[in-house]
Specification:
The chain folds into 3 domains: 379 residues, TIM Barrel; 72 residues, Alpha-Beta Complex (Oligo-1,6-glucosidase, domain 2); 77 residues, Golgi alpha-mannosidase II (Immunoglobulin-like), CATH 2.60.40.1180. The chain is built from 16 helices and 20 strands. Helix 11 packs parallel to helix 15. It has 560 residues and is an alpha/beta fold. The chain has an 8-stranded parallel beta sheet with strand order 11-10-9-5-2-1-13-12, with helices on one face. It has a 5-stranded antiparallel beta sheet with strand order 14-15-16-20-18. It has a 3-stranded antiparallel beta sheet with strand order 6-8-7, with no helix packed on it. Bound molecules: 1-O-alpha-D-glucopyranosyl-D-fructose. One of its GO terms (molecular function) is alpha-amylase activity.
Amino acid sequence: MVYQIYPRSFQDSDGDGIGDLKGIRARLDYLHDLGADVIWLCPVYQSPNDDGGYDISDYQAILPEFGTLEDFSDLLDGLHARGMKLIMDLVVNHTSDEHPWFLESRKGRTLPDGTLNPYRDYYIWRPASEDGQEPNNWGSHFGGSAWKLDPERGEYFLHLFSPRQPDLNWEHPEVRQEIYRMMRWWLDQGVDGFRMDTINMLSKVPDFPDAPQKQDERYPLAELHFLNGPRLLEYLREMRREVLDHYDVLTVGEAPGVSPELGAQYTHETEGVLSMIFQFEQMALDKDLAHPTPRWTQVPWSLAALKEVTGRWQHVLHGQGWNSVYLSNHDVPRMVSRFGDDGEYRVQSAKLLATFLHTLQGTPYIYQGDEIGTTNVQFRSISEYRDVDTLNLWREEVTEGGGDPQATLERIWAQGRDNARTPMQWDATPGAGFTTGTPWIGVNPNHTTVNVQAALADPDSVYWYTRELIRLRQDLPVIVDGRYDLLLPDHPQLYAYTRTTDTEQLLVLLNFSREPVTLDWPAASPPACYRLLLSNLAATQRPELHLTLAPFEARVYHAL
Ligand code: TEU
């Protein structure tokens, strides 16, 4: 299991309201007890923090708010001493606009003394279009054009994310070598791998054509022209040859817009370029892809679509590549609020989602706080939000667009990235045990009841159930190796599947609804062969032929 830490929100050790490396170190026993094998640490590098540290100005320095390189190596030692590993966030599609490479690059093609600027091609520069506009119609992920005119250089630079995150020019061999040097440096410090941010955006279609427009979008997202681009595999193979092959590393690439077939190719055990990828299909289930504006409009997701997406990835990667299994991270709403029920059935549905994640084929990921069923937050005022994407949306729609503030706020409540970034809820004290000072972003008011201390004290909590699932996966090879087969494909409430090897079978029954489900025994073998391994409710040990599953009930049976 990989446990994801968003350091700014995990644990503050010095009362400045910002989580830090010493804070994480103080919680290593908690992570170890839960059963984390690997920690994925979101960026801790030097950064102006325009985008939560995904805008790096020095790849080989730690942001002072988080600590020092010494604190980092203490953390690494503490993890290794407990048999855990650490993967760093590798953000190399772009840097901060305060990175020295960018400061040099914007000086122009030639320097005042007439020599060629060695950094001139480190970023993607283009002149204005013939009519004096941006070079093309590409939009940024965070709204608006993906191009910004730099007054110093007199040209536009590409930024697929914020204007403070200029895209590096991977076509330039020296840029690639700089990145490989930096990666080797971290691996030589003892880190165990990388989570690679937006890794399939590195190669852009060279002539930068306009993107097709949906609706009346002024600046469409040009995924067609920058996802899985023409030279991507070449770059990743080179990275593997120059860096990764020389170390024992785990890599997971963030890769929206990848099909299972491509995913199998990227993660193939011998021919692949990465250990795993994060695919995004289940993250799109509640989005209306045909109508991208207004941004963050949520539509109901369907269980049929979840089954379809999951099944495709489970089948195509089986024996070919390796899945990463996740329903949440620092960019998306809390999984229990999005795919479960964060009211009456919070505990039950959080356990059901955990059952799903920990019984599929692939490596399960836990985002900090999901192990106690942390929920979305509803701040009353935009002034309480911190995320650049959220604040841009507000500016576009409300401040500049004159739209209805309440309507935008409600979409932020449902979809905003700050849902995942409120401080870790350790206890019921005013700072939630996260800080003794003023937290950089508000604590979710429900921390008085939803917190680690309460979860540890309650044998029926999401925490203890998740821990049991983690142990189960370690004990049962069928969870790692078994083939996935869907049962009752058309059932509107129940998600039922088996995992099968030559010697074992697992049967998973998940009632993804607020209504009870009654059914006949769905699997081939008679119930007597099956032993109930786990349930999020007190279920019968000897399953009957007719089953009734309560709302959000999950059961895992095992047959030898
Ligand atoms: O996210 C990039 C990414 O692929 C998603 O933001 C995706 O584009 C979006 O959800 C689609 O709607 C990574 C980081 O995880 C994120 O925190 C950063 O802001 C971003 O890259 C830029 O570095």
